[in-house]
Amino acid sequence: MMALFGFLLYAGVVLVCIVFIVVPLSVALAAAGIGTGTAAALCGVAFVLAGGSGVGVLTPTGVRHGLPGRVATEFVRRDRAWPQYFAAQAGLDARLAAVRVLRWTRRMWKDATDWLIANNAGGFWWPIVLVPTVVVVAATSLGLGLGLAAGLLAIAVVTLVAWLVGVPVVYLLRTVDAGWRTVFSARASCINCFEVAAVPAYRCRGPHGAQETADGDDLHRDLRPGRLGVLWRRCSCGWRLPTMVLRAAFSRRLVACCPSCGTEYFPRAGVVRDVRAPVFGAASAGKTQFIMSAMVGLHRAAERAGITLKVPDEGHRRTYSVFEDLTARGAPAPKTDTTAPVAVTVRVEQGVNSTLLHLFDAAGETLTDPEQNATLSYLDNAETLTFVLDPFSVERVQHEYRAASEDVFTEASAALYDPEASYNATAQRLQGYGVRTAGRRLAFVVTKADLLRRLPLRMPAPDSAAVRGWLCEQGLENLVVAAERDFKETRYFLVSGRDTGPDGPVAVLRWILKRGWGNIG
């Protein structure tokens, strides 16, 4: 009887404690727990976002394998730079924040459980020990979940907004870049390996170590807006670099380079029109003399027209000085080395209508040798090619006039190969390498006109149709037909290789430059 009375008394006390102490206390503790847990979770998220954890950060070293998205084949690999925050780091931070909060929750439940077990769940006083403890832990866990959800939702919303705004901006800026290159035929061509790039690589001038430079980690192959930055990107060295080719071309922190061989480009390569004009023909046809007079004549014509014309580097300035000196003395052009083609470059400037003009000259022996001309890839990327024909190498001219004008032929030093054979060697090389010549233009130049006039023959008028007709009269109709069949447009010229005036080789350059430069000469 006494045991029953004691049990009922204990049950009554427990009930009173639960109703008047535990329930009000639990409500207060639950509210405090939810608030504390929410605040703790938000603080944890903020701590991660502020970078206070020091872990889980996607660095330039890890960006090549840890940043989602495909890298185009021509750019080889991801550039070594800090990624744009919303490209990947926002997701990593969200994951790290979730892991941190879940770890806090597990630790809290474990510590509470261990304490309750160690203290026999409060023993006699379990109503005011066990229940409030469980309520506090559960409420705090709920608060942590709510805070984490709110933090992750905020990250998700901001990231979504950033992507919704950023992706159109990225493609708009890329379109502006690509549109500029299309409208102005802006490219970057290398005079070392002859590769042509729509998007140059850019070498950062920042504080990179010797090993980074050796590994190419200072080279940014794709500076277009994207995952590494929209308007700016931060290089691994810490320097802030502009995106877009249009902006990078004018940055003092960057040097434009060839993506294939690393050779430094000329200033503003990639944003100004790039005209590649290979000159081909037989050995001794007068190609180098043609180029020499064309360059000197172009400088003089530009001066008369008030157009700025610059030689972009010291090496080309020395070459031009030699050309100018030889022209002033009336001396012949030096023989072209057979080891490698010579590139002569000038920049014709007139605001946005600026042009980098590259004239390529390879020895005739190289051009006519199928094994050697396989390396002349500069031929493949030219919109206009120039074929130089020596009229003194034409069989009919030699047969009819050589005996009576031996001194003229001696002075002319006729080309060593048949004109048709020298043309076909290059045309077949182009077609063999898949170059669609039907989309290109050909300047067909008959040179040595000054010496030709000393022969007792009928000279053609200087217009294209008359020169074409004269070539057919000399038995070169097959060559003329082949040239017009192979190329979209063929224009015929008759020039003296020593003429630096407006009717000399510079007339050919005017036609090659075509758009916007009709006032030269």
Shape: rod-shaped
Tell me which CATH architecture of the largest domain applies here.
Answer: 3-Layer(aba) Sandwich
Q: Averaging pLDDT over every residue, what do you get? A: 83
Unreliable sequence segments: none
Overview of this structure, please?
With about 525 residues, this protein is an alpha/beta fold. It has three domains: about 15-65 and about 80-185, no CATH class; about 190-255, no CATH class; about 275-515, P-loop containing nucleotide triphosphate hydrolases (Rossmann fold, 3-Layer(aba) Sandwich). Helices cover about 50% and strands about 15% of the residues. The chain has 17 helices and 15 strands. The protein has helices at about 1-50, 65, 90-120, 125-185, 210-215, 245-250, 285-305, 315-330, 365-370, 370-375, 395-400, 405-410, 420-430, 450, 465-475, 475-485, 505-515; strands at about 80, 190, 195, 200-205, 220, 230-235, 240, 255, 275-280, 310, 340-350, 355-360, 385-390, 440-445, 490-495. The chain has a seven-stranded mixed β-sheet. A three-stranded antiparallel β-sheet has the order 1-6-7, with no helix packed on it. Strand 11 (about 340-350) and strand 12 (about 355-360) form a beta hairpin. Helix 1 runs parallel beside helix 4, helix 7 packs across helix 17 and helix 13 (about 420-430) runs parallel beside helix 16 (about 475-485). The chain is rod-shaped, with a radius of gyration of 39 Å. InterPro entries: DO-GTPase2 (IPR045528). This is Double-GTPase 2 domain-containing protein.
